[in-house]
Amino acid sequence: MPMPAKLLLSVTLLASMFCTPAVALTPRESSEISNKVRNLSGKWMAEEEKARKHVAGRRYGMAAVIYQEVLSERKALGLDLQTEQLALADILEKQHQIDAADGMFKQAIAGRELSEGDENFTLIYTLQAYSDFLSRNKKPAEAAKIKKRIAYIHSQASKAPKELIALLKSAPARSSSQYAAWSKEAAVKATQIGQLYLKRDQEPRALIAFQKAIALDPKNSDAYEGRGEVNKRSDQLTKAGLDFDKAIKLNPNNAQARVNRALSLRVNKNDKAALTDLNAAVAAAPQDVEILGYRAKLYQDTRRYDLAIKDYSHALELNPAAEWARCQRDLCSQALAKSKTKSGH
Hints:
This protein has helices at residues 5-12, 27-56, 60-76, 82-94, 98-116, 123-136, 140-155, 162-169, 179-199, 203-216, 221-233, 237-250, 255-267, 271-284, 289-301, 305-318, 323-343. Helix content is 76%, strand content 0%. By secondary structure, it is mostly helical. The chain has two domains: 5-19 and 36-155, Serine Threonine Protein Phosphatase 5, Tetratricopeptide repeat, CATH 1.25.40.10; 162-292, Alpha Horseshoe (Serine Threonine Protein Phosphatase 5, Tetratricopeptide repeat).
């Protein structure tokens, strides 16, 4: 006899949904995941719309099964689970399974902390939902603690990252013989902290880390590149350009700085200078599929289809799952054939 949906939810749900730790993916793995997401996203939207209708009709068990299935598929791809987790928490509360709902909220918070850090603004929505849940279920003291945490996250938006503060506390005395070596190593770590917060879309905090890295080691090319990224996102394009110039001057093989400057040059219609930077970036990072893609697109846009096809083909050799490269290569092949037909060759 099949287990009732309501019982299935309460028995198996919490045990099956712990987030898997983040791991570094190869370009091929990333592309394969992107393709799967593209194929499944329409289905997920349709299924979750069905689930919402079930909830509206108080068919909570049926809605829960749908959310569980979507969550399981998204979890297997390493995607964000917050929407499904909060929906399931709501269903559990409606079924008067308060402890299970509380556990689901905590799981959603833990998953976001794992992927984005414990001071990220993206936590606030989940924390607010949890605080409201606690208030509804007559737990005012716990709700107050969550509200204090929300206020704390707001207060940290433009302050130095805690990782940077801990790093600076480890500094030896400036007068000591160890300071110079520590300073250079600390600049590398501060840059890594900046890149972490940049990835989390916390530009003000990333900027603080990059500024400190530059102060610790004015010859750190990656720190200037990171600060340039922050300036670019803030539409301070002149400052961004100066930072990319400095990064490249310090390290002509800084591929990311070369790419960023090339993209800025392309916006300004200076494709010749952009190609010089992209050539240098490819030489510095010949296995980087994304950089090859940027150069191929420049060739494609300037109608050098044979060179674009060569780069797209190389990208596919490095990552056969890069469907974007295959698609663009096909477009270039068609354009090349058409141009030959027009010229009579």
